[in-house]
Here is the input.
Amino acid sequence: MITPIIHINGSAPANLKDSYDNAMYSLRDFTAAWERVEFNSRDYYVHEDPNAFKEAQLERAEMSENIRLVGEYINTIREALDDQSA
Here is the structure.
């Protein structure tokens, strides 16, 4: 993964770190809200497709994995920035 490099002509290190920290905090809040979304088969059984809920479960699992990957991406950048200021 290509991460930002702190250098004299680049963004201020504190700004970079703060923006990625804020993104992570926001993602954590979003993840908590996502997990609280009610997801129940009773909301899907009226579809004509009898596999609608099963397909919705797969879609939701894929979205949850994408959210996890975004967090991993942000954390990798945060760690790279921390390593450069050590």
Summary: The chain has a mean pLDDT of 96. The chain has one domain: 13-32+40-85. The chain has two helices and no strands. Residues 13-32+40-85 form one domain.
